[in-house]
Amino acid sequence: MIDRRFALAGLAAAAGAATFGKTSTAVAATNNAAVAATNNAAAASSITAMDRPVPGLGPRMNMAQAYKVMDQLNIDALVVGVGLNFYHATGFWPLTQRMGHAPMAFAIVTRNDSQPVATVMSAFNYYYQLADVHSSDDFEVYLFTAPTGEMDDNGNPIAAPVQGFRDLQQAELDRIEIRRTSLADAAAKEIAAQAGAKYAMSKALKDFGLEKGTLAVDHPNVKALLSEAAPQATLVDADTALRRIRPVKSDLEITLMRQASAANTEAALAAVRAVRAGATYQDLRSVFYAEAARRGNRGVFMVIDRVSSELYDAPFQDGQAFLIDAVSEQHGYHGDYGRTVFLGEPTRAMAKATTAMGQAWDIVRESLRPGITFRDIMQTGKEALKKIDADYTISFTPHSVGLYHTDHVGNAGATAFRENPVLEKGMILSVDCPLLEAGVGGSAHLEDLTLITEDGSEPIHDIGNQTIIV
Q1: How would you label 68-85 residue by residue, b for 16+ Cβ within 10 Å and e otherwise?
Q2: pLDDT tens string 334-367
Q3: 388 burial class (0-12, 13-18, 19+ CB within 10 angstroms)?
């Protein structure tokens, strides 16, 4: 018989207090045991945040894929401002974007493989957000300041000097103040700062020969700026190009995906192995988020027993069979892991269903290779179920995972699911295998992340057991 308690391994103290307040008296009575379990889990964890090196600046995206896609779509350059796209191009995610502001910095990725990635931003934003970590080898920066009100010999406005924080001269400048000022001034001199965003963008486009080019943009702010800075350019929506670039990962992206996925998998396993009857769905989700944070990830969502809403809550029960679909991210890249959890020995019906699911997924996984399509994958899944004489509805739905949980979709939304992408080397794929049946005695799911290689595929995390018995 399973104890009515919940070993809150990895849960932060504040979250733990809230959890105990909502669960049973028996859970509260095991507070000391939970603290001990937390310490033991921390000692036993093979991955911690300290094990995860922080990558430097520079493009994350697969540049060869970007050039290929731009050639296919006859695009001369991507000009992007949305935070995630800016990060993909440069390795830097502007803090203002994370705060919810509209784009105020812009990245340029040209079709010419001899040209570097460039950015356009205000000198103050560079001084305040980027100067601490940027070097000219990472990407070029075109800075702008306010106009002085005077004009140069060519009739262009003269840019004011870079302005950082005002020096009150009540103490010696510290190392951050000195370094930021020096680096911002140097960047403004390396490529002469311009008097306003329009002129900085115009200079960048002229330097790259793009004044009359076809430019793919991702936000109304970018479109408005380019309409002024390059009135002869042709502006198109960048969504299709970005959706085709993201799924094929660079070597750096594959490394980041491996790290994020391993941490996500460990966090999910640590959370579900602690669950007992009497604890709740919200308890489990909170522990997963805490375990993800311990390993350097940020929790994104956890679907539990077919329930995705974080507002819903209910206690787990002895003998329950339920699915988890756990997603967390690190440096923008997502892990995605699904399993069936049994609180006690599985019933015959659920054991039969999950065994069939695993056998079919193994067949599908062995089929993954460059050249097959998403529809091929789904068809292979259906045929696998027939082959093993398993009369279940399981979707075998493929999706690309990376900067988004579903990073081949973008603004196309449901439309993208009606497309039929072809697998390429460097893609990282999830094939969702949920049991789409009722009256089986619970819910079930199976999901791993798989890298498409030169002539096949390989998992990017430890796939372990296909079901978890607690």
Answers
A1: bbbeeeebbbbbbbbbbb
A2: 999 999 999 999 999 999 999 999 999 999 999 9
A3: exposed
